[in-house]
Amino acid sequence: MTQTAIPETLPDRPTTSPPLRDASWDRIRELFMLTPNAIHLNTGTIGAMPYEVLDTMDRVTREWTGGLMDVYPPGMYTDHRANIARSYGVDQDEMVICHNSTEAIARIINGLDLHEGDEVVTTTHECYSVLSNFNLVRNRHGITMRTLTLPSGYDVTSEQIVEMFEQAIGPRTKVLAFAAITLFTGTLMPIRALCELAQRHGLITVIDGALMPGMLNADMRALGADFISGSGSKFQCGPLGTGLLYARNKVIDEYNPLPLPTLWPIISTWYPMMGTPPPRSTTALESDNMGDYLQSAGSASIARGAGLAKACEIFDQIGRQRIQDRALELADHGRRLIAERFGEQAMYSPGADERLRSPLVAFHPFRDARDAWNVKKVHEFVTRMEQEHRIWIRWTEFDVPGSPHQHYAARFTAHLFNDHQDIERAVQTMGRLAEEMS
Amino acid sequence: MFTATQPVVVDDTGVRTGGTLRVLGPGDPVSLDPATLDDPASARLTRLYARQLFTYRPDPELRNWQAIAPVPDLASQIPSIYNAGLGTSGTTYVVHLRPGPAWDTAQPRAVTAHDVVRGMKRLANPVRPAAVLPYFLSTVRGMAEFHAAFRAAAGDRPTAAGLADFQNSTEIAGIFALDDESLVFELVRPALDFIPMLALPAVSPAPAEYDAYLPDSAELRQNLRSNGPYRVSAYRPGERLVLEPNPVWRQDTDPVRRRYPDRIEVGLGAASDPASLADAVRSGRADLLWNAAVPETYDGEPADPGTGLGYRLDPCLLLNVRDPLVRNAVAHAVDRAAVARAVAALRTGTAIRVAGGIIPPGNDGHTGRDPEPGPGHHGDPARARELLAEAGHPDGITLRLAHPDTPEGAAVAQALVEALRPAGITAEPVARPVRDHREPAAGPDGDWDLATVSLSPAWQHGNGRVFLQRLFAGGPDPELDRLITAALDTIDPRLAVRAWQEVERRALAETAAVPLLFQTPSVPRLRGADVRGAVAMPSLAYDDDLATVWLDRP
Questions:
Q1: Element (H, E) at B400
Q2: What is the number of alpha carbons within 13 Å of residue B318 lying toward its C-beta?
């Protein structure tokens, strides 16, 4: 099994605006529409758009408003998809721009060719949209679900997680579904290792990558997954109502030698009206444009697609590896401060195994461990951080193995527009507030 | 965020307030203490003064989904993933109370989450636990342990002080208040029916004042507290119960109940004869009946009401007989057609079907199988005699037949006595007060061989446990218990249906019970000429909700 600190990455793309590549983080911060006198540490929920993205949306909206041009071709986002796909090491026929990560994951899950008795192995730490859509398929087709509770805490290791999945795979298992980065504890899952595990067992891999675009400089093909969803408005800092869907559409043995899984492209204008598409490719050359089937869904918001493409272009210019390193470094700084202030035992996010670290850090802020299952207290903590100190974090809820309780945590998220001062002020403030509330 | 509620808006256009609502019925309430409650007749009364976290809203159109969907009552909202009230694994519920509801104590005070916890502890009391308790023992973390410890602590001569000491010093691990407004329920397994379970009338908060009394004791009945629109102002057992407005109740805190009459008088201990009860209503001496199924006049046989709602199992014959051959003989001997005729003759206005299974039509898991054996549902007395002979009773056998002391209970028992006789089974009927009858526990200590029971679906969807867990959990057949646990462990609704059907198959194969009839009300209950706003509620076994009635008279 191979496992790197972070998923396989691509070299940064050459850009047309070298200044951003070398720009200081202070200058880059100025690109973003950040609320004045506030600290935004909740990119895990919603990012901040660059001004240029808003300008692009405004311009494109005006260009296409009231005109008599043919709106359908640009709604296929052909060039945008090609550019974005390149940023993630895949091709245009494998990349789709959709309305959000939920839509992407819903179209993937509901498009799988699953039947009664087929089993999906997933976790209780998945986003609601993942679990609800698998339940929908369970109700519709009679599949079964095996739902694992991921370990949490500072000392969790990558091997622990992979082992847990391996133990859960049974003779009826057809799908391994997991988040690239869990939203509750901010665990960067051992993606490549899990995909290799799935491949050894001939399984389909479905990855909820809502937090992946804009956070990780990921080569989606090299990860070896079959399907990945992504948000355009979280770490990617695109407009609200944008998302990405990656569907593997060719077989490249080096990354994933398994045959392409059947995908029914639900919601489609250009799926054949008679007959079937060509048989799916068994080689490195696609047999058909799966991305087009999925992308064609009537008229589309040309402006939103352009806005997302602009956000991706800006990130390419800054450098995706650079962004990833920055976000992780800021989060590590916060993680260290949290550990000093609250103790490592307060952490729900992994820390000791750097391969599992992400820019999201979840922890228990109070002295009394029992407050971890007091949703009102954790909610009040987060609300007071926002209302009294103008620091935006969020609370999360999740199961902990061996605990009968639903746990609630405070979670902060670092991104490229944050700086060390943001993190330090936030941790100091959280420390004082937690002390007061304990 | 958590306790915010939608404003309660009531359209009282055309409603006349005031007056005395006169209700009349036989007997005495089986329960007035909510913690011991499991009969719809008592629930009609407690609904006026004991609110639940969740309840049902009266809807005159029973085909509306809203008629059977729980709604927040004392709770501010139904816990769900969307409002952070339900964890993704389905085993943690966080319930927040709406602001406003209060007890009519000497110094009025708010209903708190601690009162809800107290109510749950009282539900598990060892003196007179509610019949629905098994649902909670197998669902709520620590409830079974709490109940067992409570029983051990109470001993043979429990006292109010002893019970209170235990309750106040022992916690149910999976139920705890976060503060006055919010509490957490933790389950041992996900339960898609947990909100309907919390909407059962027995699951009511209890004020600390109840610690001074044994559950549903005569003393408690004289000291009931209210958080509903009315409060008990007078109660003479077997004679009358008077309810008057609760001064601390506010309409804007109660989304389902109204308070139109100034006074509700329940005449208890009336003759149970349906004709005289009907005469009281028609002559204007009573507005509504209580604890009696007296419908409007009808011709012919009542048809299926077409609501699609679940029938009740009524009656079902439980068997406390060790020898499987004898049990099988009873199953062959019963003449369901005769029982159906006896029930139809009572003219209670129900649609009647002969039961082939335990889960009635309209409920999850109903199979539609035909009863066995014999054509025309008359049974097979000859085969029953053979089985008895094989069991060593060639000259027949005498069995004690316990039944509730109601007109219908007596009629069914008599029909069974006659139906079993040709098979050589002498059934000796033993009438028992409804309060003591419920679902008698099978086992060597039981003072009965046969017992008739009836069960209404306490909720309408995902309700496999309502019939099978309540009748058979903890019984003498360990395999039945295993199958019940397996069904409870099954979350996928389709698989759960199959799992409950497995339980039913086992119960029928082992003749743990002989289902006789399914019934559902079809003809509306008789109402006085001045009665308006009365709504039959499935959760009250289709009796009228007293909390919405008004009187159209000066």
A1: strand B397-404
A2: 26
CA triplet A222, A223, A227: central angle to 5 degrees? 115
B141 and A377 in contact by Cβ < 8 A? no
Cα-to-chain-centroid distance, residue B154: 26
Q: Which of residues 67-126 of A touch B (CB under 8 A)?
A: 124-126
For residue B171, pLDDT over 80 is answered with yes
pLDDT in tens, B172-231: 999 999 999 999 999 999 999 999 999 999 999 999 999 999 999 999 999 999 999 999
Of B179, B492, B494, the CB nearest to A376: B179
**Cβ–Cβ of B88/A124 closer than 8 Å?**
yes
Whether A309 has a pLDDT exceeding 80, the answer reads yes
Question: Residues, chain A, total?
Answer: 438
Nearest residue on chain B to A144, alpha-carbon basis = B492
CA distance to partner chain A, nearest, from residue B88 (Å): 6
- Determine the angle formed by the axes of helices B113-123 and B143-154, rounding to 10 degrees: 70
**What number is the ipTM of this complex?**
0.90
3-class SS of residue B57: coil
Residue B464, pLDDT score: 87
- pTM for this structure? 0.93
Q: Please say if the pLDDT value at position A68 is more than 80.
A: no
CB atoms within 10 A of CB B236: 12
Q: Which residues, including other chains, have CB under 8 Å from residue A140's CB and lie 6 or more apart?
A: none
The per-residue pLDDT for B442 is 63
Helices assigned H by DSSP within A190-319: 191-200, 220-223, 290-295, 302-318
Q: Is A67 a residue whose pLDDT tops 80?
A: no
Residue A154, phi then psi, degrees to nearest 5: -60, -35
Q: Closest Cα to residue B27, out of B346, B376, B408?
A: B408
pLDDT tens digits, A120-143: 999 999 999 999 999 999 999 999
How many of the other CB atoms lie within 10 Å of CB of B393? Answer: 18
The owner of tokens 């009438």 is B431
- Residue A14 burial by CB count (10 A; 0-12/13-18/19+): exposed, middle or buried? exposed
B389 touches chain A (CB under 8 A): no
Burial of A68 (0-12, 13-18, 19+ CB in 10 A): exposed
Burial of B390 from C-beta contacts in 10 A (0-12 / 13-18 / 19+): middle
Spatial neighbors of A340 by CB under 8 A, at least 6 apart, are none
> Do strands A39-40 and A391-392 pair parallel, antiparallel, or not at all (unpaired)?
parallel
Confidence of residue A304 (pLDDT cuts 50, 70, 90): very high
Longest Cα separation, chain B: 73
- Contact predicate B247/B537, CB 8 Å: no
Is A375 in contact with B173 (Cβ distance < 8 A)? Answer: no
Supply the DSSP symbol for A283. S
The beta-strand segments (E) located in A135-242 are 144-148, 173-179, 204-209, 227-231
Closest C-alpha among A224, A177, A170, A228 to residue A201 = A170
What's the confidence (pLDDT) of residue A131? 96
Token code pair at residue A18: 């070298």
Which residues sit opposite A409 in a β-bridge? A396
Q: How far apart are CA B511 and CA A405, in angstroms?
A: 41
Query: CB within 8 A of A337, min separation 6: which ones?
Result: A423, A424, A427
Tokens 């958590």, located at residue: B2
Helix (H) or strand (E) holding B143: helix B143-154
Please give the pLDDT value at position A6: 39
3-state secondary structure of A402: coil
* Residue-averaged pLDDT of chain A: 94
Whether B202 and B40 have beta carbons less than 8 Å apart is answered as no
Pairing type for strands B543-544 and B102-103 reads unpaired
Cβ proximity of A6 and A324 under 8 Å: yes
Does A3 score more than 50 pLDDT? no
